[in-house]
Amino acid sequence: MIFKATEIEDAYTVELDKRVDSRGFFARGWCSQEFEDRGLPNRIVQMNISFNRRKHTLRGFHYQVAPYQEDKLLRCIHGAVHDVLLDLRPDSPTFMRHIAVELSAENRRMLLVPKGCANAFLTLADDTEVTYLVSEFYTPAAERGVRWNDPAFGVAWPAEPAVISEKDSSWPDFVGERRLVATADQE
Asked: Site: Participates in a stacking interaction with the thymidine ring of dTDP-4-oxo-6-deoxyglucose. Where (predicted)?
């Protein structure tokens, strides 16, 4: 696997290190030891799948607060997404910054989203499917979110969402979200 640091601290894109021959290729898509050797999180407790029927479906921004924070390794296995990672870690040098990465079935790129960061994506094709390897069990009481168009972040999406859930369209502004995070951390 080929790990490339992004502009967000502790976030990486992960490319396949392909062994190509006349049949196609073989590559490792996950290796606990390779992650550990680089000091990256290597605990996986769940694999989640997001199937999206329509182009321009938006999901996110989602994350979980302590003690249920989760690392996520995302890969698009059918179609394509414009994936955005927000750094919401107050002590991080990249706090409140974001990056965007295209994940697609064609490029087979993965994105490691570290604990304390929120993630969202906009599908770029119909019938898009994304897998998530996650380091913590989903805990509904620890779930938080940031609205996709919160002006605090200025994310430039490639298109307006055509499909978005009520929950994702109504997350509070980040100022309110900081209050929610602080409250959860003190519990």
From this structure: 138
